[in-house]
Amino acid sequence: MSASIDIRLNRQTKTYNENDIIQGTVIISTPTSFKHNGITITVDGSVQLHLSGKSVGVFEAFYNSTKPVTLINQTIELAKPGQMPSLKTEIPFQVQLKGRPNKPLYETYHGVFVNIQYFLRVDVKRTFLSKDMSKQIEFNIEYGPEHDLAAEKAITKPAAFEVTSESIKTIQNKIDVPKFKITGNLDSLCCVITKPFSGELVVEESELPIKSIEVQLLRVETCGCAEGFSRDSTEIQNIQIGDGNVARKIPVPIWMLFPRTFTCPTLLTVNFKIEFEISIVLVFEDDRMISENFPLRLSRY
Amino acid sequence: MTSISTKWTPKKRDYVSEHKQLNKTTNATTTHPLGVIVTNKPQTTISSSSSSSSPIVDPLSLKTTQAEIDPLSRALAAAITSKKDSTDEYSPTITDTFEPWSSKKGVILSQYITTKKISMTTAMNNTNDESIIDNTKMADMTTTAERVKNRLEQLDAFEGGQQTQSLTQQEYINRINEMSKDMSQAWKNDQRVKTLKIAIQCGKLLADMNVMEFYPSKFCLITDVLDTFGKLVYNRLLEKSASSTGKIPERVVPDLIPDATRETARNWFYKIAIIRELLPRILIEVAILKCYNFLSTTHYRTALVQLVKMCRGIGDPLVAAYTRCYICRVTIDIDFKYREPIEIAFTDLCHSFHQINTATVKTVYQLQKLTTSIYLSLYSPALDWIVQCLLHKLDENKMEKIVNKTRTELNMLSGGVVLNALLNTLPPNHVRSKVQRYIEMINECDEQYFPKSILYRSLGLSLLLSSPSSTPSDLQLLNSVWRVVTKFKDPSAYMACAEVWVELTSKEYTTRELNTMLSDIIKHLTPDRVFEEYYGKLHAIMIKLLANIQDFASLFAMDKILPFLDLFQREHVRVDLFKSILHVFINKNPQEKTNDPVLITAMIHCAKSVHDTLGALTNDDELREVSGLLSSLIRKVDYGKDVEQELKFCVEARGLFGYLDSVTITLIQKVNTLAVSTHRIVNGVQSTATSSFIRACMAFCYITIPSLEHPLNKLQLYTLCAQTAYLNQSLSQGDGFFKMAITLLSDFPKQIEIDGKLVSSDKYLYESITNIMSTLVVVPDNPDAGVLYLAHGLNNVINQMKCFDDTSETRAMLAMNMLCLLSTQIQTFLPYHVLKVESNDALYGNDESFLNEIHQRLSRICEQIIQMLKDLANTNPKRQSTLALEFFNRLIAHGDLNQPKCIKFAVNLWNLAQKSLNPDAQKLAKRILNHIEARSVHDKSFKRLSELILGNINDTSQSSSLSNFT
């Protein structure tokens, strides 16, 4: 058995605000003692940008220039070179999360083309004959109430909507649309990320039986700069709110929790944007679909 | 006293003084050996007075007739009364409490069943190995992103291999149980993802609408699985919160819950929130709703309301109804007082009934060949539950509001089914107080949406649960209901109501109304012989009637009861019904007898029908049951002093129930009892009328007994009848019975059947024949026949009987007993007499030739026995000794030991007995020796005998006893 390293954080949620101090313990267990050339702990945070496949042709030149944007990179020495005793060694540590000047720590976000991730890494450097050891864990960043980017609080922005076969016809120029009418209202298009997205929907009438009514949460990620950009919209999750031929004229609640780490407060920066959209999808029994999109602004508070 | 000196010379006995000596003064019993000790109960006077009136008093039965019941009879009585209580199952106290789901579940599971194949779409069972790999994979995955991705992959894999099976109901149930087991197993192995997946799968099954009839049962089964899942999650979280303090907290206080636990709980809810499909998402969240307690004290409230509202998104109204029902169940479990979600559930549910009219829903249930009303009745369990939750401990005002609201919607589709739920769950006392209004409401409902019969039935059931304000109840109520019910064309609807309302009538109204109801039922069921389909219901009605009507006679006095019984035309149904009638009749008042001719005729009619179905194919248990029933019935008939009527009844019964021997036996016993009670009535002095009646009784027995099959029964009954005949001074009849008995003995089988087993008849014969002999003591000789004609015949038969084995000692023992009988006959006064019958002692008056005859016979028999003993010497010395001891025993009791020959014979026998005794016989020998010593104090001959015997034991030189026999 070889040596193993583990990092334990004192905070169970692994979620921190900027300027918080991460406290934790590095645990190294080894059956035999060994020499090392120093142990360091590194906080690493960056924005990774990718381009979608379909955009590659257009922006090929640009493609190469999308380098990760480093948000934080701090290294602290935990131990000077020396001997690591056998069995278990626990080294407590603490690191303050402080971004670079003018670079705030964005919230953790796992997307498709944009990823904002934070890692805590322990490196044990060893003599040149044996391999270095390292262990990395991810932790999450959330804006604190005082954070600059959290300054814009959510304002309730209700939205009512009405979708009818006529409205579809005029927009899409389709003749073959079954007769239906859906009305509804969304409690707010400006949501606090920890609170559920809510609203109501009424199927006033529908000629064809309905198969399903779904609420789709979409992410709209934009990568680019002054020269050009790629904008892609992908699905995060799809929640059914109506199953089968829903009763007419009864308000069906729209209710969805925002999944953690897959969503973050709407973020608009110079070289990338993370925005969200809600789409209400109506599927008829013959699998024809009708959807209505709404832009959504998320904020932490 | 006699010139013939033999080894057996009977001594003279003075039975009166012997009797005096033996009969020590006895004390009257005051306590039952099993009874409770009761002090200060001066009942001795009563018992002594009653004992003087009847010749034999059984102390046990004497005590039972008095107020103090012994514990066994009391337990029996308690069992009977408790049975009565249980039939009266709806006591008002039960209705006050909330009917728990567990009891409801049982009803649903038994009611909603199907024979159709149910299809089930599940994942293939290929995930086991995969999940194990997952766990190892899981360990080295660090980021949430990776983990989630992995989980999604797993989920895909899980959903990938779907299969659809057609299962029978039982297979389906097994499958669900299997899933539940798999789930617990996965949980134990720390495969939480798999556990959740199984739970989700279960949830999905509830969306499947095929075979709707089974849906309510399916719901019960699956929610059980979900409940288990909820418990697993909750308990794990509870354990987790314990780890910091060391013990599991009794109450969950969110502030004291460690962060780690809260985080896990939150994770669970986030995990569930991303379940794509609506129904499983709702169900799973409801299942683990209790876990909100770890996060905050009130959050569950908003969650519940939200979840109930989310049910509106479920397209199928039936599925939505049951999902709401599940939410209400969980609500009641978590917070009994929180009504908001229940109210929403109720309102939404009422709204959703509009959907039933839509084409989509209609095609769904019409495809499965269900009518609207049947389809609607599928809602009942869910609706009943929701309404029960809603109404529980609700104040009158709110209740009124709900009732009024329902009333305004009665003409709509939902009206009937909701009203039905209300009737099922409203407090019965409330329903009774407002019964007129509810009848009106029922009339306002639209028949095509919900059958009125079910409504009337529910109303009736509710009324049954509440006690009436007065008995007989308001006739108007019955009239207004029955006016409608009687117009029902569909017999099944009609019967559903009739079943309940007849029960109500039988409980609260007089037999007049009941009679009308029954005639109405007959009228409805007679056309096209529809009654054939409702035997079960009719039977149930009859059982209710029997249970509710206290006065059996008045029940059968109704002129419609027999036509009603005639509806049962299929034989086995009819027989079952009659059996239950007989059961109730016999067990209702076990002590009570009856002489009501109508009732008896009715019962005999039932009994005859039951009896006539018996045949060679009937099994033993059934035979035994019917025999018991019929015999008990016969015993219940008692005409009191009208003995002739009773005999007539017995004659009739004999003709009717000839197939069952045990019934015939009961009849013979009953006739004997009749004869004896007549004897008691006339105080032993028979007039011409009574003696001819007795002769009739005896004649009845005489011709009935030969029809029996079992020889032992015959023998015993012959003996009994002979005794009864002698008691009633019918000497020739008595002789006749004994002649029959003796004839019967001559070819008695070697083995007889007792309790279904073949047993050697030896033991029973010994008892019976000895019994006959002791009766023969008082039987006077028939002047036309020879001296001791019967005893002689008996003796001959004993000698010739082929049923004894060569190894059996019964023949020898019987011969010895015969010696005793003859020795008694010699006495000047016989030990006992029958009143008004002159026995041989008076007849012969110790006539010399009579005595000579007896002496001759005595010595002949004695020689015979000695010969038997001799024969045994070579074959079985042990038995020889035992028999010798028995012989010795009888000799010293009856023989005259003053005769030198006699005493010598006795000593020889003793020696022979001592040769090889088995332990039992040794004990007997010891007791005999004690007896001899006790007697030797007063009796010289015994003293001499004891000297001889004891001397013999010391003096071994005495010659072998065997040589002395010759």
Automatic annotation (TrEMBL), chain A:
This is Vacuolar protein sorting-associated protein 26C. GO terms for biological process: intracellular protein transport. Component of the commander complex that is essential for endosomal recycling of transmembrane cargos; the commander complex is composed of the CCC subcomplex and the retriever subcomplex. Component of the retriever complex, which is a heterotrimeric complex related to retromer cargo-selective complex (CSC) and essential for retromer-independent retrieval and recycling of numerous cargos such as integrin alpha-5/beta-1 (ITGA5:ITGB1). The recruitment of the retriever complex to the endosomal membrane involves CCC and WASH complexes. InterPro entries: Arrestin-like_C (IPR014752), Ig_E-set (IPR014756), Vps26-related (IPR028934). Component of the commander complex that is essential for endosomal recycling of transmembrane cargos; the commander complex is composed of the CCC subcomplex and the retriever subcomplex. Component of the heterotrimeric retriever complex consisting of VPS26C, VPS29 and VPS35L; within the complex interacts with VPS35L. Interacts with SNX17 (via C-terminus); the interaction is direct and associates SNX17 with the retriever complex. Interacts with SNX31; the interaction is direct. GO terms for cellular component: endosome. SUPFAM superfamilies: E set domains. It comes from the Eukaryota. Pfam families: Vps26. Keywords: Endosome. Belongs to the VPS26 family. It is found in: Endosome. The keyword Transit peptide does not apply.
TrEMBL record, chain B:
GO terms for biological process: endocytic recycling; protein transport. GO terms for cellular component: endosome. It is found in: Endosome. InterPro entries: VPS35L. It comes from the Eukaryota. Keywords: Endosome, Protein transport, Transport. Belongs to the VPS35L family. This is VPS35 endosomal protein-sorting factor-like. It comes from Rotaria sordida.
